[in-house]
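Researcher: Please predict.
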Amino acid sequence: MDDIDVLEDLLILKVIASRQRHGNQEIFKTRNNHGFYSSGVHVLAKKNPEQFIESTRFTYEQFKVLLNLVEPYLRKYSHRIPIEAEQRLYITLHYLAHGGPVRVLSIKFRIGLATARSIVLETCDVLWRVLESHYMSPPTDAEWKQISEDFWNVTKLPHCLGAIYGKHVPIKAPPNVRAKYFNKQLKSIILLAACDTSYTFTFVDVDEDGDERDGGVFKNSQFRNMILDKSMDATNLPNSDIVFPYYFVADVAFPLERNIMKPYETVSDVSEEVFNQRLCWAIMRIETAFDLLTSRWKVLSRPISFSPENAKKIVLATIVLHNFLTSGNVNHTDAEKINNHNLTSVNRHDLLTSNTSSQLALNLRNELCEYLNSSLV
């Protein structure tokens, strides 16, 4: 068991015993002297930085940089001693990194349950609002072209603007809305995202209608509109005079459209095998991005004990924090080794597939397949 786990367990047992003797209010009054943050965090940061990373997924230096960005929006003023912005951020990162019942936060940090929930939601909202403009802003045309060049260099797939993917995030839906969010014995919201070759998310949409089927989720999502609105003038494919549109790649759960290429579901010859393999190399980027996301933020591994609207705030915070960390600290070699096991798997085909592809989309895929099997690549 890690040092931080031992410390947490001892503190929790101590608090439970003290609650039994003195009651909740007296325990909360001792927060500044005996709470987990006051008792252990600064010691971890100085003497055991690896455990600080385990607790928050941030180095102490990164934590301070992030705190500097969000502190003005987390600072509270009260006639009582407020919970400082630094502690609010730490509590939230700890929750996102480990998940679990919010009541555990209440015990660890000697704060009320309602206070713990409020801190998590308010801080997640601030993280998204403050970081979104820099770490989730839509790429410029020049940046899109660079993304396309990166995919060409890494996967030999031309004109690719990114890989897209969708996953269920399990939640504990409120009783009065269970029917709406109940999907195949799983209450969930839907996370749709696109990424570049560096595992950085470029588009994201969290859909609260976790029970839609038959293509409803993707077809009716803002995410699809963002993808389709990302129109760039068709240009020649590399080393050829073939004019071809820019597009995103996706697995077979998504529809085949003019600017969404997906593998052949039934392979009829070697050329289609080559095409599928090339697309799979690109699709692996988004799968790995999701693996990194869920490996880092364990809150996504188990049902989130918030309403769908509030769970969305939590998911968006993990996305923008992922980009914040990925911008300079991801080991891409190690990233390829991560196995996807954290987000609940469902029948995504039933969930996302839309109606029959247009003839234009089919023709474009065949044309791209022919190009990828030619001597031009």
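Model: The beta strands are 160-170, 182-183, 186-195, 201-207, 235-236, 243-244, 247-249, 260-261.
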